[in-house]
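ZP: hey, is the PXG complex queued? I don't see it on the tracker
AM: it wasn't, my bad. submitting now with these inputs:
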Amino acid sequence: MEGLHNTSTETLQQLDAMHHLHPFTDTQALNKKGTRVIERAEGVHLWDTDGNQFLDGMAGLWCVNAGYGRREIMDAVYQQMQQLPYYNTFFQTSHPPVIELAARVAELTPEHLNRVFFCSSGSEANDTVVRMVRHYWSALGKPDKKIIISRENAYHGSTMAGASLGGMKPMHKQGGLPIADIQHIMQPHWFVNGFDETPEDFGERAALALEERILELGAGNVAAFIAEPVQGAGGVIVPPATYWPLIQKICTKHDILLVADEVICGFGRTGKWFGSDEFNITADLMAIAKGLSSGYLPIGGVVVSDRVVAGLEQGGEFNHGYTYSGHPACAAAAVANIELMQRERIVETTGERIAPYFQKRLQELSAHPLVGQVRGIGLLGAIQLVPDKPGNGTFGTDGSIGGFCRDRCMDNGLIMRAVDDAMILSPPLIITEAQIDDLFTRARAGIDLAHQHWLETR
Ligand code: PXG
């Protein structure tokens, strides 16, 4: 088949419909409508094959932190491809890009996290977490400590273990999930679960749910607790300030490993290098992916604390690994990405200047008649659409108003995601103040149209 670069949108859509199965998609419904074919990108913008421009309010899927079109990353990958396009890290071998990346990640992460196990995605990172924490406790002569506690409405990936750790009910309904020995407690979502309490009281109650479950199961049976510092796919849920300190205490008290899933929060998203820095979390393991390479090539990893490494060393060989663990070209992309983020002080600028401006503009939307709550941190934001102010009740979970708003924003050149009726933003970290203004002008226009639609159809 010839290259498809000059093919019409219609032909591309037909081929896509005939041969491509999309993730998280009702195939029949999509194919009636046809996909939007994205062709190129630069900075914070994308263009489709019909020449429409979009401001990418989601940084791809929460990952293109450095923005599109970064030559440094492309050049590093091209050079690495010429030098050594592939070699494995299994049989007592290594290679310069993976060595450099591991050292750089160890330097960036909190002091006690110094070793990295590489993989190709966040899902694989969390599969690795499950096997690693169970192997750790076995190695220490406590094989019964194998239950992993997670949270309802968490997202940890789409593989068998990732989707099981996640607390998304529609995912559990398919394919016989969750797998054994994974438990879920309530999420720290004040707007949904704690409206009558102060956020501080609610944060404590949500954290104490962990202790209750540990006591119910017996600490001798519990291996770890896993959580995103800020839930992303669940709807940008920023926990109350009381939540993380109490979670940390409970894990220490009951000798439960604490796993921070930094797949979204890592690499600057919250305005610090890691969500763990933002919330003062001392994690035993950290899952990373997405922003590690700004999405330019697939790479993820588990960053492991000195304590856990020492335990694993008691267990001999860890029978786990992927063909592409530490893939040279992906590692080179990640090194180049980290280098440019450091050189341009992207994380510092995000934390000091860009995120505060973004949050200020986000807050302004809370006065809108269709908005019940805005929440966010760093360059993460959620705009919760509600039928009646002041935040009395929600539209439910069919997501129809959210979907309507998302589609109108798309028509108007803004990619904003809908999680049920929460509108979600997570733009590239290199976004400027003027581009943030443009983003919120378009977002407000979309919300206005959704409001009008609600008034007409209620
Ligand atoms: N952990 C977290 C916190 C994530 O957000 C994963 C793990 C899995 O990563 P991979 O690379 O295996 O996809 C994720 C991924 C959405 C959406 O619609 C979110 C993710 C992926 C796809 C869609 O918000 N997050």
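AM: back. The radius of gyration is 22 Å.
ZP: great, adding it to the tracker
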